[in-house]
Design brief:
Layout lengths: L1 H11 L7 H13 L3 H14 L4 H13 L3 H14 L2 H8 L10 H7 L5
Helix pairs in contact: 2-3, 2-4, 3-4, 4-5
């Protein structure tokens, strides 16, 4: 009986989200509170079921910037911008990319040369 009670409790603690956007909000809350590994798992989960979720890629780019993974940040942000060009404008004003501002690749991504 104890094992069954434990299993029911474990099943109840599983997170469920009505929308991928709600799932994203949860991942961002983890990021903002410093639970970086958990946030990364949540962003990955969103992308596993919604590969074109630009906002999840943007969230991963934020996480990568905060944790000092410049190459991953650039890759994820570039893909987020490719899927939704408004992410470029968002990133320009986002203080979470502060660690990237001196990287010329980041500047080129946010301010591409117009032919």
């Amino acid at each position: 009986m104890y094992i069954q009670t434990c299993q029911r409790q474990l099943e109840q603690s599983r997170l469920t989200f009505l929308t991928p956007e709600e799932h994203y909000d949860y991942a961002i809350s983890l990021l903002n509170t410093g639970f970086y590994n958990d946030a990364q798992e949540q962003f990955g989960s969103i992308l596993a079921s919604h590969p074109e979720a630009d906002y999840a890629l943007y969230g991963l780019a934020l996480l990568d910037s905060i944790t000092g993974r410049a190459q991953d940040c650039l890759r994820n942000l570039a893909r987020a911008i490719e899927l939704n060009p408004r992410n470029r404008l968002q990133a320009r004003a986002d203080n979470d990319f502060q660690s990237m501002v001196d990287d010329p690749r980041f500047t080129e991504l946010l301010y591409p040369e117009v032919p």
